[in-house]
C-alpha cells in the first residue's frame, strides 16, 4: 500500500516537473508532448490532484480534456468528460461546464453519471441567477434543467437538492416580478404595477412573494378607487396569510377607507378566491 502511494507521488511530481518546462507559445505543445508518455489513469490522477490542490481548476480541466484527445472512447475518457464539466463549473466557466455536461449526456445517456451530468447542467444556469439582473432567461433555463433532474432521475441523490433549488429559482422569478411591480407602484403607474402583482398571484402562488403581492394589489386598487378588487385581495390575504404583517398593513389600509376584507364584485381576484380558498376551479 505504501509502495503504491509512493509511486503515485513520484508520478505526480514528475508530471508537475514536466509541466513547468516550456514557456510562452511553446507551453501547450510541450505539455501535450509530455503527456503522450503517460497512461490515461496517470493523467486522470494528475487532474484529480490539481482539483484538490490547485487554486486554478482550469489546470485540472486541461488534464481531463487531454485524456479525451489521447484516449478517445475509453472508460477514462468518459470519466474525464464528467470531470471537465465539474472542473469548469468550479472555475466559474459555466458555458464550458454546460458544453461538457451536454456532451456527456449526448454520448452516454444511459450512464450512471447521467443524473450528475444533468444536475451540473442545471447548476451551471442556477449559479448565475444572481448575476443576470432583470434578464430571467437563465432562471428559466435553470428551472428547466432542475425539473429534468427531478422527473428523469427521481431516485438519484441529486433529486432532493434539485427540488430545493427549483423552489428557490421559482421564488426568484416571483421576486423579480415584485421588484418591477414595486417600481411602477412607487411612481404611480398603477395599471402596470397591478399586471406584475397579478402574475405573482396567479402564476407564483406557492412562493414567499404572494402575501406582499396581495398587499400591493390592495394599495394599487385603492389608489385607483377600485374598492371591490382591493377588498377581495384583502380577503385572500386574510384567509391564507392572516398572521402575516402584510395582512395587518392591508387590513389597516382598508379600514382607513371604511372597508373590510371580503370578496366583492366579479373580477379576476374573485376567481382566485374561489379557486384557492373555496376549491372551486372554473
Automatic annotation (TrEMBL):
HAMAP family recorded: OM_assembly_BamD (MF_00922)
Domain Outer membrane lipoprotein BamD-like: 39-233
Protein name, per record: Outer membrane protein assembly factor BamD
Subunit architecture: Part of the Bam complex.
Organism per entry: Paracoccus rhizosphaerae
Membrane topology annotation: Lipid-anchor
Localization: Cell outer membrane
Function: Part of the outer membrane protein assembly complex, which is involved in assembly and insertion of beta-barrel proteins into the outer membrane.
Family that this chain belongs to: Belongs to the BamD family.
InterPro entries, A to Z: BamD, BamD-like, TPR-like_helical_dom_sf
Keyword field contains rRNA-binding: no
Predominant place of localization: membrane
Keywords for the protein's UniProt record, in alphabetical order: Cell outer membrane, Lipoprotein, Membrane, Palmitate, Signal
Top-level taxon in the UniProt lineage: Bacteria
NCBIfam families (alphabetical): OM_YfiO
